[in-house]
Automatic annotation (TrEMBL):
Task performed by this protein: NAD-dependent lysine deacetylase and desuccinylase that specifically removes acetyl and succinyl groups on target proteins. Modulates the activities of several proteins which are inactive in their acylated form.
Keyword vocabulary terms for this entry: Cytoplasm, Metal-binding, NAD, Transferase, Zinc
PANTHER family: NAD-DEPENDENT PROTEIN DEACYLASE, NAD-DEPENDENT PROTEIN DEACYLASE SIRTUIN-5, MITOCHONDRIAL-RELATED
Signal peptide from the UniProt entry: none
Root EC class: transferase
Protein name listed in UniProt: NAD-dependent protein deacylase
List of residues binding NAD(+): 11-30, 92-95, 179-181, 204-206, 222
UniProt keyword Cytoplasm present: yes
Major site of localization recorded for this protein: cytoplasm
Residue ranges occupied by any Deacetylase sirtuin-type domain in the UniProt entry: 1-236
Entry GO CC: cytoplasm
Record-listed E.C. numbers: 2.3.1.286
Catalytic activity of the protein: N(6)-succinyl-L-lysyl-[protein] + NAD(+) + H2O = 2''-O-succinyl-ADP-D-ribose + nicotinamide + L-lysyl-[protein]; N(6)-acetyl-L-lysyl-[protein] + NAD(+) + H2O = 2''-O-acetyl-ADP-D-ribose + nicotinamide + L-lysyl-[protein]
């Protein structure tokens, strides 16, 4: 039998052992602000300097040499390099650890945007961005000042790549959900959409909200669970 079309969905839990905090750590607080209060278009309109500080700190973290892809990111790199059917890695993460573990792959889709990109709200251009962003930073393309924003999908905004994701969900026969609490839609709804059509596997530190919708759920740290499950999948289908 040939390998089944695959979707892997990842969340903050896969990057936790690389040293990046998950969203709902620390009671979901950052400098006494609820994360939802710095990750909305309304928050950016009300206090852009605060929102820039939040994302500048997280962008700077990615430049720290101590922050590297872990065994789970690397195992997924192996899985995607060897999978003999259509495969899409949909990540909710805005870090670049999957990118580093599977460089140049066009199977990776950042549905919630990327820390290392900015977008100009005046001219619409997206570009790679490594340093800090402030309310005075001019857009290198159109010159407008104060119009650059992190290329991040905030609460209330439409995730990126939904057409491609919908197409992949139609064809998907094997679904892995890794390191996500299952609280944020539309990603949290993929497993229910695949009921009866795809084999559904959860790999997470603890049961997610939608754990009961998976046929198989293994609970523990991603760096242990993911390499083992990838090895099993490649032994069967690789
Ligand atoms: N290995 C596996 N899973 C882990 C690990 C680990 N080492 N550490 C934590 N987890 C699990 C947690 O148990 C939790 O269920 O990862 C999950 C992380 O959940 P969240 O912090 O809610 O992150 P995520 O699901 O990615 O959040 C979705 O919410 O804030 C928004 O846009 C943001 O993309 C984010 C979205």
């Amino acid at each position: 039998m040939s390998a089944p079309p695959l979707i892997v969905l990842t969340g903050a839990g896969i990057s936790a052992e690389s040293g990046l905090a998950t969203f709902r750590d620390n009671n979901g607080l950052w400098e006494r602000h609820r994360v939802e209060e710095v990750a909305t278009p309304e928050a950016f309109a009300a206090d852009p300097a605060l929102v820039h500080r939040f994302y500048n700190a997280r962008r700077a973290q990615l430049a720290d040499p101590a922050i590297q892809p872990n065994a789970a990111h690397r195992a997924l790199g192996q899985l995607f390099a060897n999978w003999k059917a259509p495969a899409l890695l949909v990540t909710q993460n805005v870090d670049d650890l999957h990118d580093r573990a599977m460089p140049g792959s066009d199977a990776l889709l950042h549905m919630h945007g990327e820390l290392k990109k900015v977008r100009c709200t005046a001219c619409g251009q997206r570009r790679a961005w490594a340093g800090d962003l402030s309310t005075g930073t001019p857009c290198p393309a159109c010159g407008a000042t104060g119009m650059l924003r992190p290329d991040i999908v905030w609460f209330g905004e439409m995730p990126l790549g939904m057409d491609r994701i919908e197409d992949a969900l139609q064809d998907c026969r094997l679904f892995l959900s890794i390191g996500t609490s299952g609280q944020v839609y539309p990603a949290a709804g993929f497993v229910a959409a695949l009921r009866g059509r795809a084999e559904r596997i959860e790999l997470n530190l603890e049961p997610s909200l939608g754990s009961h919708l998976f046929e198989e759920a293994r609970h523990g740290p991603a760096t242990l669970l993911v390499p083992k499950r990838v090895e099993e999948l490649l032994a069967r289908w690789g």
